[in-house]
User: What shape does this take?
Amino acid sequence: MARAPLAWDAGTMMRMAQSPEVRRRLRVAAYAIGLRDGQVLLARFIGAQPHEWTLPGGGVEHGEDPADAVLRELTEETGYAGRVVRLLGIHSARYEFPRDYGVEDHHALRIMYEVDLVGGELRHEVGGTTDLARWFPLDVVAGLERAGFVDIGVALRGA
Assistant: This one.
């Protein structure tokens, strides 16, 4: 096991504290804002406790166009096929998470798209990061356990 360097302090040897390792992580993701009849389509993310409702979407693969990624994620998480209507905006946020090695400096870059649903049927994802998909009236969303960027996406859509 590596030891911290030693330093002299007023004639007494003492161990210098090591600062925690910081690892930077950039995550680029694309999210779908689908509305119909005053309701928004959400998926329940199960990677956090408590589980929280989120916009259908997820990570953009290397070399993948974000507009293709949002449609792929929409189908994976909800069963619906979609069509991108327009880019609504980009949300950027940074978080620090404690890790066993120190700290993860996480930068989330979220690309938000308005989508129309053009096919498929509502179903739940199996074996993924979400387990339920559901339509919610816009006036009940504020009472849900949800990711903060749900509100941002809905506001960008102008609902």
About this structure: DSSP finds two helices and ten strands in the chain. Residues 66-78 form the longest helix (13 residues). The longest strand covers residues 80-99. The two ends are 57 Å apart (CA to CA).
